[in-house]
Amino acid sequence: MAQMSRALTRMDELERLAQGNSPLHRLHPGVKLGATLAYLAAVLSVPLLQPGRLVGFVLWPALLMPLSDTPWGPVWDRLKVALPFGGVMALSNLLFLRAPVARLGSLIVTDGLLSCLSILLKTGLSVTAVLLLIGTTGFPTLCSQLSAAHVPDLLCMQMAMTYRYLSVLLEEAGQMALAYRLRSNGERSIRMRDMGSFLGQLLLRSFDRAERVYTAMTCRGFSGRYREHKRPMGLKDWLLLAAACGAVWLLRRYDLTALGGLLMG
After folding, report:
1. pLDDT digit string (tens) for 9-32?
2. Any idea what DSSP says for residue 22?
3. Rounded distance, CA 53 to CA 120, Å?
4. What are 202-223's pLDDT values in tens digits?
5. Helix (H, G, I), strand (E, B) or coil at 74
6. Is 115 helix (H, G, I), strand (E, B) or coil?
7. Is the dihedral of CA 250, 256, 260, 261 positive or negative?
8. Cα(139)–Cα(75) distance, integer angstroms
9. What are the sequence ranges of the domains in the chain?
10. Comparing C-alpha atoms, which of 265, 254, 264 is closest to residue 55?
11. Cβ neighbours of 104 (radius 10 Å)
């Protein structure tokens, strides 16, 4: 039950952060969405054998997180979940790609090592950028902005409802786990022989809860489309977006580590 409560709290933490009033929070969501997409495209387009070119992209979260008053703790908690998935791919490259590309003293640098570093850096930078976007905008606002950008309403609604319903599912699971503990003579966890029944009941309760949620939404006039007020982007917003995309292009175009070496040399 405590684990369910912690999971629910961590899930809602980004939405609470999105209620802030920093300069980044006050930006038009279209500016933040467009700039983040440009940043992700630039990060993912860096060649795998050039991990040094990704170092400059660290400036993005290093500058925007203090500007938006976003703490590192919630971001790091979620980043720890994503890094193992990138680590599996990175480790496979490290094991199977062994062609030497450089030598540092007695250490032979292989293409597998370079691609391993690139995958880990790309995973960390990409996930951090997305979390920063959600933490300064809010997921429902992002879905509304995607709808305004002519992304199909069905897809936007599916993403928004899935995101919202996860907290409902965790709440149902928490209530069932508490009931199980009260009826199982102090068992701390669900026994394996009861796990099938527990998951089946959770599935049935989820279906029933989803039906009630949909009925309540229909009674309030829901028609499958976003009806939120969509503020159009003004000239200032477009200029900010162009400046952000220009900054991302400079990070992608120039290797800051090489430029730093030239300046120090």
Report:
1. 566 677 788 888 888 988 999 999
2. S
3. 13
4. 888 888 887 888 888 788 877 7
5. helix
6. helix
7. negative
8. 15
9. 23-151, 152-219
10. 254
11. 7
